[in-house]
Amino acid sequence: MGIGTNLKIALGEYGLTVAELSRKTGISTNTFYSMIKRDNEKISPDMLKKICENTKITVYDLITDYDEFAAKYYDPNATKEEQAIGDYILTKMGNDNALGEIIEAYDSLNDMGKKVAHERITELLEIPKYCKETE
User: Fold this and answer.
1) Which of 10, 22, 37, 81 could bridge to 29 as Cys pair (CB 3.0-4.6 Å)?
2) What residue segments make up the domains of the chain, in order of their start?
3) How far is CA 98 from its chain centroid?
């Protein structure tokens, strides 16, 4: 699956429409529809940041091979965009000590286990005492 398909799935999981995503990010609906239709394998660092910082959609929802993208940060042959995405992923991972362990455990799950893990996390998000305060 490409980033376009992952975006479509994430929109459904978080109850967002393309129009709402467009309003929240300032990115045109046509750009998102095109991305979904083509099932793009690439995303600009700026677009990735805008989606992740303005919605509940995470970098891990959009990029399934995030470890490969993260490695691009250190690859001198990678493009500047690939390195910027790698930097963003590494920054996100580095800001949460438990995240590496969670990702490792998640990676060891099969598709059905990943779906259940997502459901459980979604349940936790519905309990205010486990959520960050929102502004």
Assistant:
1) 22
2) 3-95, 97-135
3) 17
